[in-house]
Amino acid sequence: MLLDLRQGSIHTFKVNDSYVGERIVINGLHYAKTAFEKAQTILIDAAKQSLDWLIIDEVGRLEVEQGEGLEPAVLRIVSAFQSGLIRGKLLLIIPDNLLKVAIAKYDLLGCRIFSNDFPEV
Question: Is the pLDDT of residue 101 over 50?
Answer without folding.
Answer: yes
